[in-house]
Every structure is written in structure tokens, then in C-alpha cells.
Amino acid sequence: MEPKPHKTYREQVDLLVDRGIVIDDDDAAMALLRRVGYYTLSGYSYPFRFKDASGVRTGRFRPGTSPAQIEAIWEFDSRLRAAAFGPLQHVETYLRALLGYHLGGVDPMIHRKPELLSVDRASDYPVWIAKLDRQVKDSREEFIVHHREKRSSIVPIWVAVDVLDWGALSYLFSFAPLGVRDEVARAFGLNAAQLKSWIRALNVVRNVCAHHSRLYNRYYSLTPKLPRRGTYPGFDAIESAKDSTFAMLSLLQHLAQNTLGANTRLLPAVVRSFPAGSGLELTSMGAPAGWEASSLWR
After folding, report:
1. Quick one: pLDDT at residue 138?
2. How far apart are the C-alpha atoms of 8 and 14, rounded to whole Å?
3. 88/266 Cα distance (integer angstroms)
4. Given this model, what pLDDT does residue 151 score?
């Protein structure tokens, strides 16, 4: 099969017009296509397309759809990623510190003693420790170089955690003895099973933010275990949409509220900045009615 033929910016504008987008300023439309790219922009234009009788989106756009509306959603998404990435980093740092501290209290080298860990699937540990070994070997961080050269590469867990990314931290949490998992989860106001599922789910969000992918209306196959109804009322309203971006941001907002030093005001401010004139609603990212009244978002 041959690839689709290359289209100039002029031809891309003509294609959008043919599909029903109202373009009053060709130069502005071409500038937007140069800045964002046709296929990146198409992800944000998707909700503006008609649905056929079976509910599948077609290639035709709703009457009155303009590049400015699509651009407003793209700009909102850029702000949303930036606002989410800050607390994600704080939560990751806090999780790393808690794991290093509590695991170190069991044994400084617990990460190399699987008999002290609680590994659910035996095949996961060798893959994880091999990755850790590569990161320690390749790291140029002074604290790692010091342990390689001055401490015979004996790196205790509270040092090792600093070379782990979010995904590897997720596995380390799942390997931790049950008592350690409970201790770390309590710091976030959760139980161990809940925190484990939240960390796994938010790893996807972190990757989306780090790679500048579309965040605002994405859906997630890894869904979190929510607290029992009534424990945190803010989560009761998202129970039916816990695979949505708003649900993921709700998890993050809760974790940030239980993380020392995290800014918990920026994300709510950005969510409130959703472009009302875009023709879309905040429900398109899973927000329930009355979300602003929740203690998570006030």
C-alpha cells in the first residue's frame, strides 16, 4: 500500500474547508498548521466532527467549526500538561523519599534481597533489578559515582531510588513488604492497594505530559481503585468515569494535597480556564457537574 501523498499547507487548508471548517483567514490557518502540524491538530479537532448513526465520528465537521476553536483546545491542553507535570514531579519525589526511608529501615540493601521483598510475579524482579543495575552503571550523578568508586558499588536503597523513574518506582512499591506499602500509602491518605493502582495509572499521565501528547480528553485502560464511597466525596462523583483525564487529575490533586511542598492551586486554576467559547464542555474530559465544589478543586 502506498502512503498518502504529501500535502502543502495550502492543500491542507483546502482539505479542512472541504470537510466543513470555516476559515476566514487562510494565512492564520496555515500559520497554525505550521506551528502545530496537521495530524497533531486533528487529534484536537476530533470532538468537533459529526457522528454517524452508529456513533462513529465521520470526517465532516459541525457547522461553524473554526480553527480558532480547535486552537483554543490545543492551547488549553498545553497549559493543562504543564500544570499537571509540576505536581507529578513533587509526588514522584515524595514517593521516592518515602520508599527509600521505609525500605532502608528494613534493610539498607533490601532491593538486592528478594527474600525480604513481596514480589507478586517472580519474573518482574529480575527485569527490574537489571534495569536498576544499568542505571547505576551508566549514571554520572556524583552521589552514584561516589558509591561506585568509594563504596565498591554498594548502593543502599535510599541512594538507589534516586535513579529510578516513575515506572520503576511503581514496581519497587509493588515489591515492598506489606508493612512498608501500608506506611507509604498512609502518608497519602490511602491504603496500599489504592496507591499501587494510582501510581500505575498516573505513570501513563506522566508519560503523556513528558512527551507533549494530548491529555485533556484521553481515556485510560489502567483505572484506579477509588476509596470507599463517602471517604473522600470528591471521588464519588467520578466513579463512573474513572478512566477519564479528569479522574486522573483528581488522583493527582489528592496526592499533591498530601505531598509536602506541592502547589495545589495551579491545576484547579487551569482546569477552570477551559475555553467556554470553544463549543465543547469540560464534560468532554470527564468532569462531573458541580466539580468546582469538591474539596479537591476548591
Report:
1. 75
2. 10
3. 12
4. 64
pTM above 0.85, yes or no: yes
Backbone CA torsion sign across 232, 233, 239, 245: negative
The per-residue pLDDT for 155 is 85
Regions in the chain scoring below 70 on pLDDT? 146, 150-153
Torsion of CA 52, 56, 57, 62, to 10 degrees: 30
C-beta atoms surrounding 208 within 10 Å? 20
The C-alpha cell that represents 146 in the structure block: 561516589
Amino acid residing at 92:
E
Report the pLDDT value the prediction gives residue 146, as an integer from 0 to 100.
66
At 264 the three-state DSSP class reads coil
Q: Are 51 and 40 in contact (CB under 8 A)?
A: no
Q: Which long-range contacts (CB under 8 A, 24 or more apart) does 291-298 make?
A: 291/237, 291/246, 294/233, 294/234, 294/237, 295/232, 295/233, 295/234, 296/232, 296/234, 296/250, 296/253, 296/254, 296/257, 297/234, 297/253, 297/268, 297/271, 298/268
